[in-house]
Design a protein that fits this description.
The complex is a heterodimer. Chain A contains five helices and two strands. Chain A is mostly helical. In chain B, 32% of the residues lie in helices and 28% in strands. The chains are: A mainly alpha, B alpha/beta.
Chain lengths: 145, 295
């Protein structure tokens, strides 16, 4: 699992990490039952405070994405996909709202927007890439949770 | 044991007619990593020297790990490690000699950790300290500071003048040390990206005054950029807690210190076409406070 932190976004690191882990579970990049690096290891790798990593693990456990087994570490929960998909769908919705707001701000009509969406979705279906390609723009962290 | 590692109240220090530090009341929670920020000449080093008992305050009080740093300096230095801005160590001593010396004077010296750090920081054991580059000397000081297993580590701009690779090794070593035993770290720095990565508390010093003291989370939640666009020019718009306000007439950009959804209402009432709220990086927040002046 590749994690990256954006120091210019203004989104606290723990929120960035939570979102990336949710997406990684939803996309299958990390699988149920898979073991995550221990807190100190991941903190050293990202050069961030171990408390931040500990908080991410703790909060994702509360969401049902992760589970900890006494003495053996932190794992992706067996039934993590459900909550991960729900969390990721929220993110997709927020991004869609942004796109719609952008379209309207530059004067696109609602039918125009609808048409553009329909075309984009049709294209993705034809290419068979729906849900597979993650463009770099999706890495932006500009939500204000 | 108190739950604060460092506490000062109304600390003041003047040099001649120049006031370096003015009514600074720090409260550094135990176990926190506290980033102490300010422009050059803001008073960071002066504060740190008072914390270490190297400089007497004109007025105000200091308590470091429960000790008075002037009257109880020996007891304090047993649990506090300090890396100054300009490291000065005996030039004739070798790196290995420094490690032996540390083992002799520090009751909590951890020889295995010292050797581990020496290897990780690529310090040549037989090299004399006088022959080390500035970056290497800084690394030697950090090695010695961490190996004495302090409860509190005070670093005065530890990465200043280091190349990016050395800086990274430096920060990695500090992060690795944090995993242990809830060490408190108080450090000043110019590299706000480093601070944003490791700090969970932030103090911003501006012209000798502490204008921000907050957890990083809260600071990032409350400090926001608001961009409001109007159909026609809107004069005289103000928001509560405004740090900065720029406008070309129709578009207004506000930086506010105490954001909540409520403060947007006047903008909607004034008929804003769009109101956008953005988070700010620590660097942007820092600039907003030291450019805008007061909090």
């Amino acid at each position: 699992m590749y994690l990256s932190l954006d120091t210019h976004s203004g989104t606290p690191f723990y929120l960035q990490l939570k979102e990336q882990m949710r997406l990684a579970v939803a996309a299958g990049t990390i699988q149920p039952g898979e073991r995550l690096p221990v807190v100190r290891e991941l903190a050293a790798q990202l050069r961030i405070n171990p408390n931040t990593v500990a908080r991410v693990y703790r909060e994702l456990q509360a969401e049902g994405l992760l589970t900890s087994r006494q003495g053996s570490g932190t794992f992706v929960a067996e039934d993590a996909r459900g909550p991960a998909h729900r969390g990721s769908a929220d993110l997709v919705l927020r991004r869609m709202r942004e796109v719609v707001a952008l379209g309207m701000s530059v004067g696109m009509s609602l039918p125009q927007l609808q048409e553009t969406f329909a075309e984009t979705i049709a294209e993705a279906g034809e290419a068979g890439v729906a849900g597979r390609t993650v463009s770099s723009s999706e890495q932006r962290r500009d939500d204000h949770e | 044991m108190s739950d604060v590692a460092i506490s000062t109240s109304n600390l003041c220090r003047r040099f001649g007619r120049v006031t370096a530090v003015q009514e600074v009341s720090l409260s550094v929670p135990r176990g926190s990593v506290y980033g102490y920020l300010g422009r050059n000449g803001a008073g960071k080093t002066t504060t740190i020297q008072m914390l270490m008992g190297l400089l007497l305050p004109d007025t105000g009080t200091v308590s470091v790990m429960g000790f008075d740093p002037v009257k109880q300096d020996v007891a304090m230095k047993r649990v506090v490690s300090y890396v100054p801005e300009r490291v000065q160590m005996p030039e004739w001593m070798t790196v290995k000699g420094l490690m032996n010396f540390g083992a002799g004077v520090h009751p909590n010296w951890d020889g295995r950790l010292a050797e581990e750090l020496r290897a990780r920081l690529e310090l040549p054991a037989d090299r004399k300290l006088g022959q080390l580059s500035r970056g290497m000397l800084g690394k030697a000081a950090l090695m010695a500071a961490l190996a004495s297993r302090p409860q509190l580590l005070i670093l005065d701009d530890p990465t200043m003048g280091l190349d990016p690779l050395v800086r990274r090794e430096f920060m990695e070593s500090i992060v690795a040390a944090l995993g242990e035993a809830g060490t408190t770290v108080f450090f000043s720095s110019h590299i706000l990206e480093d601070v944003e990565r490791v700090a969970d508390w932030i103090g911003i010093l501006h012209e000798g005054r502490l204008v921000v003291q907050s957890s990083l989370d809260e600071l990032q939640t409350k400090t926001r950029r608001i961009i409001a666009t109007f159909q026609d020019a809107m004069p005289d718009l103000t928001l509560p807690g405004m740090l900065q306000h720029e406008t070309d007439g129709r578009q207004h950009v506000f930086l506010v210190s105490d954001f909540s959804e409520n403060i947007l209402q006047p903008l909607h009432d004034a008929g804003a076409l769009s109101v956008k709220v953005e988070g700010m990086s620590l660097e942007d927040i820092f600039v907003a406070y030291v450019r805008g002046g007061a909090a």
